[in-house]
Amino acid sequence: MFDLVAVQQSLNDFGFDGWLFYDFRGANILARRVLGLDQKPVESRRFFYFVPAKGEPRKLVHRIETAALDLLPGDKSIYLRWQDQEPCVAQ
Question: pTM above the 0.85 mark?
Answer without folding.
Answer: yes
